[in-house]
UniProtKB/TrEMBL annotation:
Record protein name field: Uncharacterized protein
Domain of life: Archaea
Length: 130
């Protein structure tokens, strides 16, 4: 398995457990707030973390998706965000784009994502390294 396949596979596994991030998590009966269903990294004229977000509610919800890139020691190389409104009962894949400056894209070993209300600060405490 090459590095890109590993990033995609581990990003998918790590992001599944993010439903409880920043007060946006669901109940024991299933999610009642938006959550991250998947995330992958693409290396195309810069790096893109594609984050699949699901809104299971009956109302549109404005969310901010954060992603950070980590090296093989777990040190943060970069972070970025995108804000969007997800319609009721809908899902969307939101691209968080990075233009490597001060690091090369091959130094990226994993990523983390966090889903918050706009204007908040991401904690990445409920996300797992991918």
């Amino acid at each position: 398995m090459d590095r890109r396949q590993l990033l995609v596979a581990t990003g998918t596994l790590a992001s599944v457990g993010l439903a409880g991030c920043a007060g946006l998590g669901g109940s024991d009966d299933g999610p009642d707030q938006p959550y991250v269903a998947d995330s992958t990294v693409a290396d195309q004229a810069g790096l893109i973390v594609n984050v699949a977000v699901v809104n299971p509610t009956d109302s549109p919800v404005e969310i901010e998706v954060w992603a950070r890139l980590l090296d093989n020691d777990g040190n943060e190389l970069d972070r970025g965000s995108v804000t969007a409104t997800i319609d009721a009962g809908d899902n969307a894949t939101l691209p968080v784009t990075f233009n490597p400056s001060g690091y090369v894209s091959s130094a990226v070993e994993s990523h983390e994502v966090d889903l918050i209300r706009p204007g908040g600060e991401p904690s990445f405490s409920n996300s797992e390294s991918s």
